[in-house]
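Below is how a single chain appears once it has passed through the pipeline. First comes the sequence as given, then the structure the pipeline wrote out for it. We keep one example in the README because the format questions we get most often are answered faster by looking than by reading.
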Amino acid sequence: MSGILAAFATEQALRQALSGLRNHAFTYETYTPKPLDDDPSGSPLPLIMFIAGMAVFLGFFYLLTWAFVWDWPIDIGGRPLFSWPAFIPIVFELGILAAVAAGLLGYFVVNRLPHLYDPIDHCDSMQRAMRDLWAVAVETNDPAHANRADEILQGYGPLRVEGIPAE
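Resulting structure:
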């Protein structure tokens, strides 16, 4: 066994169980029909996308400036060498492209995807965990740690408590 999975009928019962687990310093993962909104930090994806978009925007703006001003200056009809308004459309589009690509790749990294197999999928409660059950998994390889978590969770009246099979 690599941990325990407890299923609750309501969100309030799950929140009470989570407070009990937090008081005893257990690490856990929840499987719920809707987000619990306990994470005040939010997702790092907007920041990742902003940084990638701005880095590519500034990098390509510098590249165009270097190419048209210093490396290969062409005097066309008396126009200034540093004609920056002509650079904006392409560097803007490349910045958006980089932000979207960073968002897509960041989504997979943040959500640990693709994750094709997890032993917790063999638990019966996971069949309904994200439709109408509120579940919490405490993963541990220590039997004493698992027994203590089981005792704490049993105090909150779960519908079902089952062991997570080992890989």
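Residues 45-110 form one domain.

See the next section for the split statistics.
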